[in-house]
Amino acid sequence: MVLRADGDRDERVRVEAAEAKLRAEREAIEERRREERREEREAMEERHLEERRPPCGSPGSSRTHV
After folding, report:
1. Cα–Cα separations (whole angstroms), residue 63 to 2, 18, 50, 66
2. Is 39 helix (H, G, I), strand (E, B) or coil?
3. 54/64 Cα distance (integer angstroms)
4. pTM for this structure?
5. pLDDT over 70 at 59, yes or no
6. Which CA distances in Å does 14 have to 6, 9, 20, 24, 60?
7. Model confidence over 28-37: pLDDT tens digits?
8. Alpha helices in the chain (DSSP H)
9. Backbone phi, then psi, for 21, in 5-degree steps?
10. What ranges do the domains of the chain cover?
11. DSSP character for 62?
12. In 3D, which of 61, 40, 37 has the Cα closest to residue 50?
């Protein structure tokens, strides 16, 4: 009976450790996805700003060719 209880406890510890590892892996994947989406959003915003900016040397542009 004692051996069975020890075995059950050991199995429970292994299962909990495996679940914690999977949870950490899922969280890391989600964090990478959030970071990728943030970078994509920033790149889109930068492209949008570039499209709205007047060309170099045109009236209203503060940029000039050097």
Report:
1. 80, 57, 12, 9
2. helix
3. 11
4. 0.60
5. no
6. 12, 9, 10, 15, 67
7. 999 999 999 9
8. 2-52
9. -65, -45
10. 1-49
11. S
12. 61
Question: Which residues touch 56 (CB under 8 Å, ≥6 apart)?
Answer: 63, 64, 65
Q: How confident is the model at residue 64 (pLDDT cuts 50, 70, 90)?
A: low
Contacts of 66 (CB under 8 A, 6+ apart): none
Please say whether the beta carbons of 40 and 33 come within 8 A.
no
What does the block give as tokens for 38? 């943030």
DSSP assignment, residue 53?
A: S
Residue 37 structure tokens:
């989406």
Residue 44 identity (one-letter amino acid): M
Length of the chain (residues): 66
